[in-house]
Amino acid sequence: MRRQADIAFFCDARAVHFKKWIDALTERGYQLDVFSPWQETGSQNSHAAYTMPKAPFPIPTSVKTLGKAVMRARNGKLIKSRLKHNPPKLVHAHFLLDSGWMAAQLDIHPFVVTVHGSDLLVHPGKSRIHEFVAKQVLQRCDRIVIVSEHLRETLRRYQVPDHKISQVPSFIDTTRFFPNNRPSRDRVVIGSARNFEPVYDLATLLKAVP
């Protein structure tokens, strides 16, 4: 039997920033079990653990939402059974309603959830099912990591006590990315790392440009 995992890590392992998390933790000697919809981390301990089946025909949104919640809970229970005899020392899930909901089924502590924005600010308001899942995860976890201070107020509205909240801001490496000494230009150049979803409202940013 291999040694006990230090962290059960729930995330979309295709994303570059999560790959960097996984690589950095592994380089520091941590044993990880990575649970991702896609087994693309290159790690031998990466598990394609919760791929969601697609319906062969259109179904109502409410039914689809309920089905996803039930399927994620079921997958979480299956992962719990898999880890029963050799549980990790820590469970860490990224995003509230998908990875967080599955990780909550493990009932393994400490349990940490990192919220990134829309998973707390937008999705819980889409339906009662979304709201129920969000509340359950927030109640069951031991620590909530926020990437921006403005998320703290929303957590307070969910009755989350301050002692459960830690802020780890999103940031850039200023040794690599910093203003240069070029003279100012006549035209404004805007760079955005966001996509064109309405929630990011890039149109308002463009309207604000003089």
Give your account of this protein's structure:
- The model has no long low-confidence stretch (mean pLDDT 85).
- The protein has one domain: Glycogen Phosphorylase B (Rossmann fold, 3-Layer(aba) Sandwich).
- Helices cover 34% and strands 14% of the residues.
- It starts with 6 loop residues before the first strand and ends with a helix.
- It is of the alpha/beta class.
- The radius of gyration is 19 Å and the shape is globular.
- The protein contains 7 helices and 7 strands.
Indicate the topology.
Elements: E1 7-10, H1 16-27, E2 32-36, E3 46-48, H2 61-83, E4 90-94, H3 99-104, E5 111-115, H4 118-121, H5 128-140, E6 143-146, H6 151-157, E7 165-167, H7 202-208
Parallel strand pairs: 1-2, 1-4, 2-3, 4-5, 5-6, 6-7
Please, how many domains? 1
Largest sheet: 7 strands, parallel
Cα-to-Cα separation, first versus last residue: 64 Å
- N-to-C SSE string, H for helix and E for strand: EHEEHEHEHHEHEH
Q: In angstroms, what is the radius of gyration?
A: 19 Å
CATH class: Alpha Beta
CATH overall fold name: Rossmann fold
Q: Which range best describes the helical content: under 10%, 10-25%, 25-40%, 40-55%, 55-70% or over 70%?
A: 25-40%
Key terms:
210 residues, alpha/beta, Rossmann fold, 7 strands, globular
What's the gist of this structure?
With 210 residues, this protein is of the alpha/beta class. It has helices at residues 16-27, 61-83, 99-104, 118-121, 128-140, 151-157, 202-208, and strands at 7-10, 32-36, 46-48, 90-94, 111-115, 143-146, 165-167.
